[in-house]
């Protein structure tokens, strides 16, 4: 609790929102490629997986029609990530304590998306898009935080965060 945060919490919220937006756009552009790879006789074709992740027949919906998915995942991530202790204090976290909350945030967001689509009986969104968005979101959230952690550790090792302290007294008392 006494540790000072390297980056303000609100800035981390912006970074999280940007990371999720990149995951959203990446999944949107990746789905047509994955659809071709998942066709019968192609590289990623598995009959059970193809029927499970197959989108509604036709093309993927326009980006503006899928924007609600981004908003739900963003809301879930901004609730889940700060709930973990020392959110934003990357210098004091292990790699696992950075990766796990990112994965849980993506899973909770996609869980809410699934709940909303089930409750509204609206299965217009491609399941392949939703799963791709979850995977890319977890990857991008983890990656940017691990990169920031690496940057802070390099700065710490170079002595940027060192403080000069003068101790006065007898040697036995120190």
Main beta sheet strand tally, sense and closure: none
Number of helices: 5
- What is the residue-mean pLDDT, rounded to a whole number? 81
Structure class: mainly alpha
What gyration radius follows from the Cα positions, in whole Å? 22 Å
Give the H and E element order: HHHHH
Q: How does the overall form come out from the CA principal axes?
A: elongated
Q: What is the beta-strand fraction?
A: under 5%
How much helical structure, as a percent, in the residues? 55-70%
- Termini gap: 26 Å
Can you count the beta strands? 0
- Which regions are unreliable across 5 or more consecutive residues at pLDDT < 50? none
Give me a quick take on this structure.
The chain is mainly α. The chain is 63% helix and 0% strand.
Descriptive report:
There is one protein chain. This protein is mostly helical and 174 residues long. It is 63% helix and 0% strand. The protein has helices at 9-37, 47-53, 63-80, 96-119, 127-157.
Question: Helices, strands, pairings?
Answer:
Layout: H1 9-37, H2 47-53, H3 63-80, H4 96-119, H5 127-157
Helix pairs in contact: 1-3, 1-5, 3-4, 4-5
List the defining traits of the structure above.
mainly alpha, elongated, 5 helices, single chain
């Amino acid at each position: 609790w006494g540790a000072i945060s390297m980056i303000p919490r609100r800035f981390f919220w912006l970074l999280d929102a940007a990371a999720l937006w990149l995951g959203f756009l990446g999944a949107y552009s990746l789905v047509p490629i994955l659809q071709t790879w998942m066709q019968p006789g192609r590289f990623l074709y598995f009959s059970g997986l193809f029927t499970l992740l197959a989108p509604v027949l036709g093309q993927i919906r326009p980006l503006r029609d899928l924007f609600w998915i981004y908003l739900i995942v963003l809301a879930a991530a901004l609730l889940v990530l700060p709930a973990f202790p020392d959110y934003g204090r990357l210098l004091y976290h292990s790699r696992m304590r950075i990766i796990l909350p990112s994965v849980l945030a993506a899973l909770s967001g996609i869980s809410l998306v699934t709940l909303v689509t089930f409750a509204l009986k609206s299965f217009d969104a491609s399941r392949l898009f939703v799963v791709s968005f979850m995977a890319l979101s977890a990857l991008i959230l983890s990656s940017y935080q691990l990169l920031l952690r690496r940057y802070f550790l390099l700065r710490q090792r170079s002595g940027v965060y060192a403080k000069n302290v003068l101790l006065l007294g007898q040697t036995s008392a120190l």
